[in-house]
Amino acid sequence: MEQPGGRQAPAPAWESGRASRRRRIVREAKGWFRNFKIIYRRYAGLYFCICVDVNDNNLAYLEAIHNFVEVLNEYFHNVCELDLVFNFYKVYTVVDEMFLAGEIRETSQTKVLKQLLMLQSLE
């Protein structure tokens, strides 16, 4: 717990060491993410997360996540967690086609799928 003036209050006597370590990690993480925010969406037990600038548009990245999941669903024919685990290199290829330097590069699902099929034919 932080007191006025930036000093740390001592941990209460009833608090375990694990809880104080967890609080310290959360406090440090808040410092790391001061200029960023996490945007996530859940699909059937899978969480898709993106870390973006504070000033970026939330809705644009929620739509980008939805678009990404639809491309994965089409590419893997009803994607599941095992597809993502065992074909992670294909997932990275999809990410590379849709995002460039952390920004949305391509929004057309047909163009992305066409490019992925072309790359798959080269293998």
TrEMBL record:
Cell location: Endomembrane system
GO cellular component: endomembrane system; membrane coat
Domain of life: Eukaryota
PROSITE patterns associated with the record: CLAT_ADAPTOR_S
Membrane topology term: Peripheral membrane protein
Family of this protein: Belongs to the adaptor complexes small subunit family.
Protein name per its UniProtKB record: AP complex mu/sigma subunit domain-containing protein
Lineage, uppermost ranks: Eukaryota, Metazoa, Chordata, Craniata, Vertebrata
